[in-house]
Hints:
Layout: E1 2-6, E2 30-36, E3 38-39, E4 42-48, E5 54-55, E6 58-60, H1 67-79, E7 84-98, E8 101-113, E9 129-135, H2 147-154, E10 166-171
Amino acid sequence: xxxxxxxxxxxxxxxxxxxxxxxxxxxxxxxxxxxxxxxxxxxxxxxxxxxxxxxxxxxxxxxxxxxxxxxxxxxxxxxxxxxxxxxxxxxxxxxxxxxxxxxxxxxxxxxxxxxxxxxxxxxxxxxxxxxxxxxxxxxxxxxxxxxxxxxxxxxxxxxxxxxxxxxxxxxxx
Length: 173
């Protein structure tokens, strides 16, 4: 089940669905900060080498750390690149079971200023991940998680807009 709330300054009412029942066994909500890094109709993705799925670059927000700083820190740690996180663009709330463990995540996706180019590979400094540029037009074929982030990215043009914040909640349990 996916619930959507648009937080744009739009006079039309937000799209709401009845929430899914609680996912039992969740111990805490994990907060992740990720970056939307776009270049010439491509988006930079991070691929889990062992399991094969992709996600936006970034990672967990440490206690007391600003979400914007977490995006910048994670990209420096994982790829050795310096970026500047900008406006919050998208919030995904995901509840799912991963390898038998119930998970509840809030993913904050920020627009990111960068000097990267889709014409050049981005190296990984961590052995379990790799970075790759995906065409926005071809995301339908990509195993990009969470599913709500994939759906949101497929609505973008070749570059981000500053039209407000989208919130999508999904339960895969």
